[in-house]
Amino acid sequence: MSKASGCTCAAITFIILGGLALLIAWLADKMKSPTFTIDQVTVNGYNFSTTTNYLNATFTVAVRSHNRDSKYKIKYHVVAVSVYHTSDYALGFETLGPYSQGHGDDLVFSARPMARDVPMTDPDVVRSIREENRAGQVRVEVRVRASVRYEVKGWKHKHYTLKVICANLVINLASMKTNQSTNCDVDRF
């Protein structure tokens, strides 16, 4: 065998082994996004002024995250929990963190977003809130944005942002809380 063909054979072997190593790493590196549910939303001090159209309320939101990934630990750097009226009208938010979540673990974020003199300027929103108040219930949406990093045995993967939307939550104004838990949609980018 000539020296040139030996170098070519070694180069081809190196390329094949390198490609195989990349393929194995790619197949092994399929991170799963955590699942999110809303355990409960309660409200205190709910007051919608029909004369000035200002809303005041303190929401208490229990957001449960479940790490479905069997390899990666999730580090939450910043978690922002917001409450919206279902018409996409922001009512309040709170920023939490940092947190760490192990494999298969559940983590509950407890946030208290406050609506303090939030002006309702859209006539459709005002009408919707008045109708909801007469019906004895308020519909809200909880949104979570989290800056996270996945880690496995000291190896840190790049940072991601999780965008979580928990829609159609109904707060009963008689009991001031939701009656059921709700699953949420999760996007990772």
Automatic annotation (TrEMBL):
Q: Name one GO cellular component term.
A: plasma membrane
Q: Does the keyword Lyase apply?
A: no
Q: Work out whether the entry's keyword set contains Transmembrane helix.
A: yes
Q: What is its main location?
A: membrane
BP terms from Gene Ontology: defense response to other organism
Which superkingdom, per the lineage? Eukaryota
Keywords from UniProt, A to Z, are:
Membrane, Transmembrane, Transmembrane helix
Which chain regions cross the lipid bilayer? 7-28
Q: Where in the cell is it found?
A: Membrane
Among PANTHER family, the record links this protein to: HARPIN-INDUCED PROTEIN 1 CONTAINING PROTEIN, EXPRESSED (PTHR31234:SF39), LATE EMBRYOGENESIS ABUNDANT (LEA) HYDROXYPROLINE-RICH GLYCOPROTEIN FAMILY (PTHR31234)
The name this protein carries in UniProt is Late embryogenesis abundant protein LEA-2 subgroup domain-containing protein
Task: Please spell out the taxonomic lineage of the organism that makes this protein.
Answer: Eukaryota, Viridiplantae, Streptophyta, Embryophyta, Tracheophyta
